[in-house]
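This follows on from our talk about sequence and fold. Please put the record directly below this note.
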Amino acid sequence: MRNELKRRLAEGDRVYGCWLGGAHPGAAELLAHAGYDFLILDNEHGPADLETSLSVMRAAEAAGCPLIVRVPWNDPVYVKRILDAGAQSLMIPMIENREAAEAAVSACRYPPAGTRGYAALSQRCTRWSLWPDYLARWQSELLVIAQIESAAAAGRAQSIAAVDGVDLVLIGVNDLGGTLGHLEGGLAHPDVAAAVHRAEAGIRAAGKPMATVPSAMRTTPELFAAGYQLVAGAVDMMLLAKAARADVEAARSAMQA
């Protein structure tokens, strides 16, 4: 039940991980054994339903790799169900202000501290009642990651990060850049850099660790050097695409030799 990723972040460790866009349990198992510090199941953009998510969670757990679930939206119903399924680390997208961050945390906590409905003893989160200390321990083991993904939210980063129960803040540079009219290669634009720096300053002022992805703005080594603790730099399907393209090109070259 112990959340090893939360423990490592609390101790100041730097961690590097991979996104699961394809949501395949076999890919999760392989990537976990490859040595990534964590995996992120992307249920905002990916195809997984709750049953598939559960299979991916089991695969990551069996391989001993922490799994973050990015939920589709700041939706208390979905949050309740994925927590009941046993998720310990959640990433909540598109957090625009303090109120949204507070709502996300509330959805993760049982009353009176929050609004999460209780059915733990009949659900996987307690291993169907075989973990009797779940209620006493779950909050200390839960990792909540708020995503800042707009220029407006970047200006509110300190108030978002300061919310009790937000453990980590991920700056989503792609969507943030999009709100300023710059995507992909355009992320190197000075306006995007300025907004990211505002977000970084706010998160630091709140005393919370920072997370992000590499982009045209900064590479993974540069991000760690800038003080980020968590970087999610790889994507399962992009790794496969790159390896497949290289394999095909090598074979084509051999045929023509």
